[in-house]
Amino acid sequence: MSIIRKVKAVERVFAHLEIETKALSASTGMRCLTGCGRCCMKPDIEASPLEFLPLAFSWFIEGKAEEKLNELTSNSSGICLVFQPVHLSDRSGSCGDYAYRGLICRLFGYATSRDKNGARKLVTCNLIKTEQPEAYQAAVDKISNNEKIPSFINYYQKLSQIDFRLANQMMPINAAIREALHEVMKHYSYRRLPRKRKAS
Ligand code: SF4
């Protein structure tokens, strides 16, 4: 499968997830605090190269691939390169490429995983739990009522069906972004360059 087709397939998965997380947010009132970015400041978030293929491809066609690769190589902080802190003091900030954020970024806060006993648990942040207790409880009740809420396993399986190798190598987020860039640059090292994408 070509890089472009993989990128489009990943974006279809993201678009489907967006519908589900928006529905959960609308039905519970649960939402990220404006300008928060706390979850992005966790060092070495685990991610797969495939979920960052759309980001790597967009940088490539904008001619930023080499520059970003150098930044990634020299970045030793472990915090996502894309994150743009506003005030380091109160740990706020935002994603520098929100439209191209990874699957982990879209799932965290609004999806379930299974605990050691196999029970579904909402994976969300302490801020939502403490500052939006009713909304959080509404989401927990949906899980108890077996209502459909996005799950980590289900969405990473969808990525596996696009490219098993790139979807199953979990690594620190900046390494995943770098691998995605390498994949795109290698692909076009001996193929015709893609045309710029029409603005969506
Ligand atoms: S890609 Fe964006 S949303 Fe994801 S961790 Fe980095 S800054 Fe945060």
Characterization of the model:
48% of the residues lie in helices and 10% in strands. The protein has 200 residues and is mainly α. Helix 2 packs across helix 9 (173-187) and helix 3 (65-74) packs antiparallel against helix 9. The strands form three sheets. Strands 1-6 form a two-stranded antiparallel sheet. A two-stranded antiparallel sheet has the order 2-3. The chain has a two-stranded antiparallel ribbon with strand order 4-5. The site of iron/sulfur cluster has 10 residues, from loops.
Please write out the topology.
Layout: H1 3-28, E1 46-47, H2 53-61, H3 65-74, E2 83-87, E3 92-95, H4 103-107, E4 111-114, E5 120-123, H5 126-131, H6 133-144, H7 152-160, H8 164-167, E6 171-172, H9 173-187
Antiparallel strand pairs: 1-6, 2-3, 4-5
Helix pairs in contact: 2-9, 3-9
This protein binds iron/sulfur cluster (SF4).
Iron/sulfur cluster (SF4) binds at residues 40, 45, 80, 82-83, 95, 101-102, 105, 173.
Bound molecules: iron/sulfur cluster
β-strand amount: 5-15%
What spatial form do the alpha-carbon principal axes imply? Answer: globular
Query: Radius of gyration, rounded?
Result: 17 Å
> Given the structure, what is the number of helices?
9
State the major sheet.
2 strands, antiparallel
The largest beta-sheet arranges its strands as 1-6
Helix percent reads 40-55%
Structural class: mainly alpha
The tally of beta strands, per DSSP, is 6
**Low-pLDDT residue spans:** none
> What is the H/E order?
HEHHEEHEEHHHHEH
Overall pLDDT: 92
Ends: how far apart?
23 Å
